[in-house]
Amino acid sequence: MTALFFFSFTIFAEDNASTEDSTSLKVAVPDYTSTADSDAFVFGEGAGVDAAIGFMPFYQFKIGGNEIPEAFGYNNTLNCWLWGIAARVSYVPLKVGKGEFGFGAEILYTYLSRSEDYYKLHAHLTLAQGLIVYKIQTENGTVIELHGGGGALMLGNIVYEFSEYTSDPLNKVYPSITGGIAVQRYVTKHFCIDTGWDMSYAFMDDSSFMILQPSISSGWHF
User: Fold this and answer.
1) Is the pTM of this model over 0.85?
2) Distance CA 109, CA 126 (A)
């Protein structure tokens, strides 16, 4: 009887130790994509739609005969126009490799103006482009986005105002291409801080130019 009791106790102790080891192993496995009831962001969950809106100034490279910085006076700030509003939306429904593939769109808007003693000049600058998008999540939960595409740069309602004369509004549209990278760090399951760097090229007659567009935005994952 004593031998039987000792044998049974030994088996129970081994089973209990095995269970504890298994539990410890599960806890140790990193789970950066989180569980279903977690508040952490899960890449690939939801509708796969991301939207962001924020601040995007730009730097214009001096190429050829383009005189836009001189015309609007931001050559005095090293060809940097210091404010702009940008919005970007993407939809990535396709699983490709370790990431998600899809499409999106981005728009930059700013109001260009210059005021001198004898004249004023102003115009609306809009850069709107369609994108091909690829996103991948790192082990710490950060999402890295690569995107590229094309669209148009629009200079709308270009007007010179003098004391006795105002020019007729002029509107111009030029084709453009772009490429860039964005990093999204999720604060909650849906809200993120989005930072990005884009490079765009506008094809203008005899005065094509390239602009660098840094941005910081608030984003939402649907």
Assistant:
1) no
2) 5
The alpha carbon dihedral of 59, 64, 66, 70 has a sign of positive
| pLDDT averaged over every residue in the chain | 80
pLDDT at 96: 87
So what's the pLDDT on residue 26? 34
In-domain check, residue 38 = no
Tell me, yes or no, whether 76 and 117 share the same domain. Answer: yes
Percent of the chain with pLDDT over 90: 45
Torsion of CA 111, 55, 59, 126, to 10 degrees: -40
Assess whether 198 and 132 both reside in one domain. yes
Q: Residues 19, 66: one domain? A: no
CATH code where residue 61 lies: 2.40.160.20
The answer on pLDDT for 4 being more than 70 is no
Q: Say yes or no: 1 and 90 in one domain.
A: no
Q: What domain range is 73 assigned to?
A: 49-221
Q: What is the pLDDT of residue 28?
A: 29
Residues 177 and 68 placed together within one structural domain of the fold: yes
User: Higher-confidence residue: 105 or 94?
Assistant: 105
